[in-house]
Amino acid sequence: MIPITRLYVGQEEADAAAEAVKSGWLSVGPRAAKFEELVAAKVGAGYGVSVNSCTTALHLALAALDIGPGDEVICPSFTFIATPNSIRYTGATPVFADIDPLTYNIDPAHVETLITSRTRAIMPASQIGLPADLTALRKIAAAHGLHLVEDAAPAFGATLDGVPLGAISDVTCFSFDARKILTTGEGGVITTNDEVLAKRMKALRANAASVSTLTRHTTTAVIQESYDEIGFNYKMTDIQAAVGIVQLGKLDHVVSTRRALAARYNELLAGNDAVTTPYEPAGYGHVYQSYSIRLTRHTQLEVMTAMAERGVATRRITACHLQPAYFDTNAPELPESAKAAENHLLLPHFVGLTEQEQDEVVDALHAATH
Known about the structure:
Number of helices: 13
Structural class: alpha/beta
Strand order of the largest sheet: 1-9-8-5-4-2-3
Strand content: 5-15%
CATH architecture of the largest domain: 3-Layer(aba) Sandwich
Number of strands: 13
CATH topology of the largest domain: Aspartate Aminotransferase, domain 2
Largest sheet: 7 strands, mixed
Order of helices and strands: HHEHEHEHEHEEEEEHHHHEEEHHEH
CATH superfamily of the largest domain: Type I PLP-dependent aspartate aminotransferase-like (Major domain)
Helix content: 25-40%
Low-confidence stretches: none
């Protein structure tokens, strides 16, 4: 079976993890601090906050902004379920917006129609590695006094008009799980230019302790920390951070390889009128965390089944408002989100995918759609 993804890790990552274990720092420590600094520097942000997942990153960001019961946060429905889940964790209400059918990203025009007196933030998802229309969303957020909290889980390394994601939105949350551009196994980093917000998030991720874990364990002074509010245990381990530091050095290679694979897919699929290949607007730097096609004549299930029978794994993205957990949101029909959930497909796409494997994927897709 050709998998949907395959890890791009090697001896360097294993050695780095082993060194972390030998150092005695297993929880959040100096490597986590270094990793968040390197991530922030890479994207041009002032501050980085390492966490144990992008889901907790999103929740932490909203909590630090004091978003809670009675508030609304606008987000796409066509996204991983963690996006609206993070809003619900705070007690706030996710308000689903439709997507642009070309980019699969949240439609700014629809977002503006959903703003009410209860709206506190907009949470776009830079879907599948393509930046959301952050230029339009920033203008909307500024005009209405809203926070822009970006779910950039699959889009580390992506750019908009040459500017990396991570310093464009008020807060940007990245994922480094096993399927993302870079991996720490599980984990994530929040980037922001807001020093006060960064400090609060660092405290809240460690049960809101007044003194950090690193400070408490590296000083000879007696420290009696206080806990002035309810926090969380969202810390990244130094073992994960050690792996992430190595992975960061591979980012340019990973992005260029994924883009080259996507270009080859585009060429191989150009003659198949049963599928539509991805759209990349001018000025947008897509990192292709996934390679997504749109089916024009066949159902998603029949193509996925046919390809699985030929040894090729595929995946899909759901429309959250159509999932049982969100039936109570009374979301509008969101026609583009519903259509995308029914007719798009993610193909195997990862560093290490050989030309022979890619040919087999395309052959299986041709067979399933002809």
